[in-house]
Write a structure and sequence with these properties.
- By secondary structure, the protein is an alpha+beta fold.
- It has nine helices and five strands; from the N terminus they run E-E-E-H-E-E-H-H-H-H-H-H-H-H.
């Protein structure tokens, strides 16, 4: 099992990133919560990882903190929740907010995340509420180098593609991007604002 990677950030195109480790490029998928803390392309980076083995593919997932990875792994144990839904949840809410959702048993908040229906949200609450203390400690420190996120060449189009990959429909993506329509924003900041708009009550 690959526990973490430390190398140079070669590519970041949400939800995919590529880390160059000694000349070998590792392709990973990561939640937006991890992308918010990534350094600029070309800078050193280290990430916690989780490998999912399927019949047709081996997929490596990357996380900026051990807390994110622990939540991801716990979500995979919930009936009906796969990696895509787990990434969607971590992209829509922080670990701290997720803990609060579990404590409040607020299934309605989870249903605001694409791909999370009422039944899935209720299963997440029921199957994870007893283990909430595992995630309720102080925020875990990330292993990546904290640095300013470099602006993308086409931030709006990058954000559009990332939101589509997270499960939003094109018309909704257009609506969400309007809420983050401000000159000079980076791709990750646009996505952050769009996701905040998506989960507003």
């Amino acid at each position: 099992m690959i526990g973490f990677l430390k190398g140079r950030l070669a590519v970041k195109q949400p939800p995919m990133l590529l880390v160059d480790v000694g000349g070998v490029g590792y392709e990973l998928e990561a939640p937006m919560s991890t992308f918010y803390g990534l350094p600029s392309t070309g800078d050193p980076v280290a990430l916690f990882t989780h490998l999912v083995v399927r019949e047709d593919a081996h997929i490596l997932y990357g996380f900026g903190t051990d807390g994110e990875r622990r939540v991801f792994r716990a979500l995979l144990k919930v009936s009906g929740v796969g990696p895509k839904i787990a990434l969607g949840i971590l992209s829509g809410v922080s670990v701290e907010d997720f803990v609060r959702i579990l404590e409040a048993e607020d299934a309605a908040m989870l249903t605001r995340i694409p791909g999370i229906g009422r039944k899935t949200a209720e299963r997440v609450i029921i199957e994870m509420r007893d283990s909430v203390q595992k995630f309720a400690g102080p925020p875990s420190g990330g292993v990546h180098t904290a640095a300013a996120v470099g602006a993308a060449h086409t931030p709006q189009s990058e954000a559009f593609g990332a939101l589509i990959a997270l499960g939003y429909k094109p018309p909704e993506v257009v609506r969400l991007l309007k809420s983050a329509d401000e000159p000079g924003l980076s791709t990750t900041e646009i996505i952050r604002r769009a996701l905040k708009a998506a989960v507003k009550p």
